[in-house]
Amino acid sequence: MQLKGIHHVSAMTAKAPANYNFYTKVMGLRLIKKTVNQDDVSMYHLFYGDEKGNPGTELTFFEMPMAGQNRDGNDSISALSLRVPSDAALEYWTKRLDEFGIAHEDIRPRAGRLTLAFRDFEGQRLILISDEHDTGVAAGKPWSQSPVPAEFGITGLGPVKLTVHEAAPTAAVLTELLNFRRKGSFPNIDAPDQPDILVFETGEGGSGAEIHLEERHDLAHERLGRGGVHHVAFRVDNDDELKQWIEAVRKVQFPNSGYVDRFYFHSLYFREPNGILFELATDGPGFDTDEDFEHLGESLALPPFLEPKRAQIEALLKPLETANPQANF
């Protein structure tokens, strides 16, 4: 069995309207699904991605208005990457972030690629990564109505960074259970006195299929809040393969969710030994299952098993206007 790459990353926000404005108006992503957290329908679950929300392009947010600020630290998903087509795109983004008053680092190499690191308005740790010399998992296609020119637009998720106190247990899960390959390592430019960051890849490899594993001995345990990442999901081809993964996880006796039907995809959840939440998610059925492609994300979408409760669910949510997403660009 072989995972195909990163499927999605789910993070935390306290302000859905500000989150929507930032990720559509500043970052130029498309809101592909406005729905709710199926485990707590009182909170929005917003999905952003390329023009169709293809697997590997999805950045999602749970809205928790009362969430405290994330306290960065160990045993966490400590950064997520967003792919852009070229080195020139990073120069464009440097200017764009400056125009919006967003602090950022200089363009620097990470794992052999040029990158640009910054934080969103809640402290979410983001890294733009150039695909100039990338090979492997194909990128997505930027949204045609994005305020960002297509040649510089975000095309999907890049490497996800995990930060732990001891790397060995997480590395063992990646290689021995999930069949990732050890690709190499690179110096930790953010903490030069700490060990090199380990690189693992799966599937066809490339930036859309990498995990960067950072071992830090100088950090306390992370406290998850707004500006933090909840979980990372890896791509599974179909339901038959997902069921095989469920059996593999059960054999090693990791507590897990079993098969979960999210309607837009099907999933398995479990925590690796350092407590980081992993999800395995199928590529389909997809986000255009219940909405027309031209109108993705414009209204509140509910899976069939929640539709009978629509009135009660809508009463729990503050209105979030997304019906005309390009109006403010």
Description:
The structure is a single chain. The protein has helices at residues 16-26, 87-99, 167-177, 239-251, 310-316, and strands at 6-13, 30-37, 40-49, 58-63, 76-84, 108-110, 113-119, 125-130, 156-164, 181-186, 197-201, 210-215, 229-236, 260-261, 265-271, 277-285. With 329 residues, it is of the alpha+beta class. The protein has a single domain (6-316), classed as 2,3-Dihydroxybiphenyl 1,2-Dioxygenase, domain 1, CATH 3.10.180.10. Strands 2-3-4-1-13-16-15-14 form an eight-stranded mixed beta sheet. Strands 6-7-8-5-9-12-11-10 form an eight-stranded mixed beta sheet. A hairpin with an 8-residue loop joins β3 and β4. It starts with 5 loop residues before the first strand and ends in a 13-residue tail after the last helix. The model has no long low-confidence stretch (mean pLDDT 96). This is Ring-cleaving dioxygenase MhqA. Keywords: Dioxygenase, Oxidoreductase. It comes from Paenibacillus physcomitrellae. GO terms for molecular function: dioxygenase activity.
Features:
single chain; 329 residues; alpha+beta; 2,3-Dihydroxybiphenyl 1,2-Dioxygenase, domain 1; eight-stranded mixed sheet; 16 strands; 17% helix; globular; Extradiol_RC_dioxygenase
Task: Detail the topology: elements first, then pairings.
Blueprint (H helix, E strand, L loop, with lengths): L5 E8 L2 H11 L3 E8 L2 E10 L8 E6 L12 E9 L2 H13 L8 E3 L2 E7 L5 E6 L25 E9 L2 H11 L3 E6 L10 E5 L8 E6 L13 E8 L2 H13 L8 E2 L3 E7 L5 E9 L24 H7 L13
Parallel strand pairs: 1-4, 5-8, 9-12, 13-16
Antiparallel strand pairs: 1-13, 2-3, 3-4, 5-9, 6-7, 7-8, 10-11, 11-12, 14-15, 15-16
